[in-house]
């Protein structure tokens, strides 16, 4: 019996994958996309930050000011403990920057699918927060050791804003650099049309590299 032909992998990126891609230059772009494609084909991938995000969300939801973040370091698997120890101080600082814990509530966000030309990109904030004055923010977390570049900040915030009606209506997109406890907002002088054209070109190149790697 002849084995069925394998189905070609449709080009696809998560928000994290695409913003990491636009941050790269030259041959490293092709290497990165090839790695994403292999990961997709093997259905591999593990998120070590899951318990951390749950603890941060619990601190916001229960107005506990960081006690869940402090506690998660002791319950996470030993191999992830150094990572969590490096993340907690910055995350706690950002949490405190929001103001009185009782004045901030956790809000659920929804994922959305952005189309950049023919490239689907999954827009998936980690959570939302709502302030006492009614302002809402859709929050995406940046965990890397290096700070997010200007390009990755612009790409992340633009794509989140582009689909905010689906993600969390009337909210502002925020990218939180967890290790440094810094929140990035869209620059007031940002030009959405220029960003859109730039990202469309990046998406077209991403698709071409993906197909070449097949």
Describe the SSE topology:
Elements: E1 13-14, H1 15-22, H2 27-42, H3 50-61, H4 67-75, H5 81-97, E2 104-107, E3 112-116, E4 119-123, E5 127-131, E6 136-142, H6 150-162, H7 164-167, E7 172-177, E8 182-184, H8 192-212
Parallel strand pairs: 1-4, 6-7
Antiparallel strand pairs: 2-5, 3-4, 5-6, 7-8
Helix pairs in contact: 1-6, 3-4, 3-5, 4-5
What does this structure look like?
By secondary structure, the chain is of the alpha/beta class. The protein has 8 helices and 8 strands; from the N terminus they run βαααααβββββααββα. A 5-stranded mixed β-sheet has the order 2-5-6-7-8, sandwiched between helices. A hairpin with a 4-residue loop joins β5 and β6. α3 runs antiparallel to α4. The chain is globular and about 50 Å long.
**Roughly how many Å apart are the termini?**
25 Å
- Rg over CA atoms, rounded to whole Å, is 19 Å
**Strand sequence of the main sheet, in spatial order?**
2-5-6-7-8
What's the count of strands? Answer: 8
Helix residue percentage: 40-55%
Low-confidence stretches: 1-7
Q: Based on the structure, what is the oligomeric state of the protein chains?
A: single chain
Name the beta content range: 15-25%
Determine the number of helices (DSSP H or I, runs of at least 4 residues).
8
Concise overview:
With 214 residues, the chain is of the alpha/beta class.
Task: Quickly list its features.
about 210 residues, alpha/beta, five-stranded mixed β-sheet, three-stranded mixed β-sheet, about 45% helix
């Amino acid at each position: 019996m002849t084995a069925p032909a394998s189905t070609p992998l449709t080009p696809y990126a998560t928000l994290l994958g695409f913003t990491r891609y636009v941050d790269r230059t030259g041959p490293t772009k092709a290497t990165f996309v090839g790695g994403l494609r292999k990961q997709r084909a093997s259905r591999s991938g593990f998120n070590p930050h899951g318990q951390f995000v749950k603890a941060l969300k619990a601190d916001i939801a229960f107005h506990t000011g960081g006690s869940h973040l402090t506690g998660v370091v002791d319950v996470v698997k030993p191999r992830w403990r150094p990572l969590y120890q490096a993340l907690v101080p910055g995350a706690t600082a950002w949490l405190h920057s929001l103001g009185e814990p009782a004045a901030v509530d956790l809000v659920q966000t929804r994922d959305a699918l952005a189309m950049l030309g023919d490239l689907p990109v999954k827009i998936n904030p980690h959570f939302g927060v709502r302030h006492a004055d009614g302002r809402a923010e859709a929050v995406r977390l940046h965990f890397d050791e290096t700070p997010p570049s200007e390009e990755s900040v612009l790409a992340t915030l633009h794509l989140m804003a582009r689909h905010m009606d689906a993600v969390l209506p009337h909210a502002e997109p925020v990218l939180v650099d967890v290790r440094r406890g810094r929140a990035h907002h869209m620059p007031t002088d940002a030009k959405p049309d220029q960003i859109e054209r730039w990202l469309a070109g990046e998406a077209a190149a991403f698709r071409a590299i993906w197909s070449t790697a097949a």
